[in-house]
Each structure stands twice: as C-alpha cells, then as structure tokens.
Specification:
InterPro entries: MetI-like (IPR000515), MetI-like_sf (IPR035906)
CATH architecture of the largest domain: Orthogonal Bundle
CATH superfamily of the largest domain: MetI-like
Strand order of the largest sheet: 1-2
Keywords: Cell inner membrane, Cell membrane, Membrane, Transmembrane, Transmembrane helix, Transport
Number of helices: 15
Subcellular location: Cell inner membrane; Cell membrane
Membrane topology: Multi-pass membrane protein
Largest sheet: 2 strands, antiparallel
Distance between the termini: 12 Å
CATH topology of the largest domain: MetI-like fold
Protein name: Microcin C ABC transporter permease YejB
CATH class of the largest domain: Mainly Alpha
Radius of gyration: 26 Å
Number of strands: 2
Length: 367
C-alpha cells in the first residue's frame, strides 16, 4: 500500500500542473481582465454587475489596438484619453508587463511554496482572505455531509430491505419531490415562512453567528451557531438526501440479489449478519466512490446560491465574485487549493476502500 500511495502522490504533480496550465491558457483569451476592470471603473463603465460579467469595459482581448483622437493606440477599449504611462503602470502592477509563460512559471513556483500573493482588488493576502471565508464553508460543508450520510445511508438500507413495501413507496415519493425542488427555491420558501417574511420570525437571516456572540456562554454559543445554520442546512439537505438515499438503496438491492447472499442465507446466517458482514462492505464501495465529488461540491460549488440567499460570506461566494471581478490571484488560488483537496480526498477514498473491503489490493493494479 505504501508504494501505491507514493505513486498516487507523485501523479498529483502533473495533474495539478495540467489543471493550472489549461486554466491559465483559457484566461489569456477571456475578455475583461483586471486592467480593463480598473479602466472601466475610472471611465464610469464598470459600476454594474452585468458589465463585469460581460467583460467589464468590453475589451475584445489582447492583441487588438484601439486608436484615440490623438492618434495614440491602446490594447484596451475605453482607455482612450488615458495616459499611456498610466496604462503601463497598471500592467506592471498586475504583472501583465511580462510574457505569459514567465507569469505562469512564477505562479507555479509560488504556489508550490503556498505563496498565493495578494488579491487585486482587496488589500489583503489571498490566503488570509480564504481563511476568513473558511468558517462559513466548513460549517455548511461538514454538517451537510454528516447529515446526508448519517440519515441517508440507514434510510437507503431500510428501503432496500423493504423494497416495494408501503414504506418504500411513500418515502420514495417524498424523496423524488424533494429532489425536484431546487435548494435555493426551498431556501426562499423557508425565509418567507420562518425568517421574518410573511409569517414567522423565528430564525436569523444574516451571518453565521449573532453580533453579541463573544458575550455568550459556551452553550449559548452552540445554540446560536446552529440557530443561524438551521435554514441554510435545510435548504442544502434536499438534494443531498435524495441522491445518497437512492444511491444506497440501489447499491444494496444489486448486492442482495447476488448469488453469494443466497448462499449465505442457505448456510443459516441471520439477515442482520448477511446484511452487515457480507452485503454492506460491497454495497458501500459506490457510496465511497462518490465522496470526493460530494465533498468538493458541498464546500464550494453547491453552496453559492445558499450563501447568497442567507447572506453568508463563504468560499462559494468568494469564488464567484472573484471570477466576475477578474481577481485572478483569488481565482487561481482557490482552483489550486480545491484541486489539491480533491486529489487528496480521492486518495483517502481509496484507502477507505481497503478498510471497508480488505480484499481490495491497489498495489496489484495499475494506477
């Protein structure tokens, strides 16, 4: 197993390099970089969110030049009338006075040392910015994963054991309806009902903790923390419960129908022994295989709309705003960190495979 782990760790190097190289190459052709963002703000063209999403000042990309009234030219649309020396200072400030390959090599070297630099538009280092947003994403990600696995796996097993029963039918109906309702729409419904909308004002609508959190006792802090998390977690839970429950049920049904289960029952083993000593470790492999994607989704992509609706400032919202503002240090740093986390979680999943089913031996297989 040690040799397998070493090979997987070594393979992470070219994988991370490829991810960053492709992303960096795509960015070179994306209109509306940070220089254009500053120019758009100076000329009054960058106030709206739609302008930022559409490329800020409308720059068509590097390599095109636009002539001003004085005959001078600029690579950036909207820069007419601005001092060319000022434009050059902007390019130097953002590092665009260097060739792309040199910028990419510098970025990779810094990232290997976990030096992510500073945000273009915030007076703070990228790593400090990420650490500042982590509590929200950790709170949403960890609790939704725990809730979905702790509740969905036993429910899926029970549904598999009672396949076709009334319990299976009505729980499947509830799960399908819950999955069909988008999480953000359910979140809005919860706000209307329980967060000061049109009915009750039972739950807060902003932040992870109350303003007086520091003055609360330890048990009051716990209550206040989960009081703020209740509605966001309920909004995120719908799709997570449905997917994991049905996946668990189908996996267990496939295993229960196999010949080795019939043989185990013929030997006189109890249903509980057959289920947890034979079926469980085989059926759980597919659940474990989906853990890396579920982990990354819960921490980053899956919580963007929920963070916005409930005014939670987490990594999902940070990543979206950084892409819109073309804040490349934050964009590439979050991409690098989450890619590395995904690869490490994937390796951890393989190790859990061997814990669930000791018959699996990765060292005998090609990586």
């Amino acid at each position: 197993m040690g040799a397998y782990i070493a090979r997987r760790l070594l393979l992470m190097i070219p994988t991370i390099f490829g991810i960053m190289a492709i992303s960096f190459a795509v960015i070179q052709f994306a209109p509306g970089g940070p220089v254009e963002q500053v120019i758009a703000d100076l000329t009054g063209q960058g106030d709206g969110l739609s302008d930022r999403i559409g490329g800020g000042s409308g720059d068509l990309g590097a390599g095109q030049q636009f002539s001003g009234n004085d005959g001078s030219s600029s690579r950036y649309r909207g820069a007419q009338g601005l001092d060319p020396q000022f434009i050059a200072q902007l390019e130097a400030q953002f590092g665009f006075d260097k060739p792309p390959l040199e910028r990419f090599a510098t970025m990779i070297w810094n990232y290997l040392r976990f030096d992510f630099g500073n945000s273009y538009f915030r007076d703070v280092s990228v790593i400090d910015l990420i650490i500042e947003k982590l509590p929200v994403s950790i709170s949403l990600g960890v609790w939704i994963l725990l809730l979905s696995y702790i509740i969905s796996i036993p429910l899926g097993i029970k549904k598999a054991m009672e396949d076709g029963s009334r319990f299976d039918v009505w729980t499947s109906g509830i799960i399908i309806v819950a999955y069909a309702v988008p999480g953000f729409l359910f979140g809005i419904l919860l706000i209307v009902l329980f967060a000061g909308g049109s009915f009750f004002d039972w739950f807060p609508l902003r932040g992870l903790v109350s303003d007086n959190f520091a003055q609360l006792s330890w048990w009051e802090k716990i209550i206040d923390y989960f009081w703020h998390l209740t509605l966001p977690l309920l909004s995120l839970a719908l799709a997570a419960f449905a997917t994991t429950t049905l996946l668990t049920k189908n996996s267990f049904i496939d295993e229960i129908r196999k010949q080795y289960v019939t043989t185990a029952r013929a030997k006189g083993l109890s249903e509980r022994s057959v289920l947890y000593k034979h079926v469980f470790r085989n059926a759980m492999l597919i659940i474990i295989a989906g853990f890396p994607a579920a982990f990354i989704s819960a921490f980053f992509t899956g919580s963007l709309l929920i963070e916005t609706i409930f005014s939670l400032d987490g990594l999902g919202r940070l990543g979206f705003e950084s892409v819109v503002r073309r804040d490349y240090p934050v964009v590439f740093a979050t991409l690098y960190i989450f890619s590395l986390m995904g690869l490490l979680i994937g390796l951890l999943s393989d190790l859990v495979y061997t814990w669930v089913d000791p018959r699996i031996d990765f060292e005998r297989r090609d990586v």
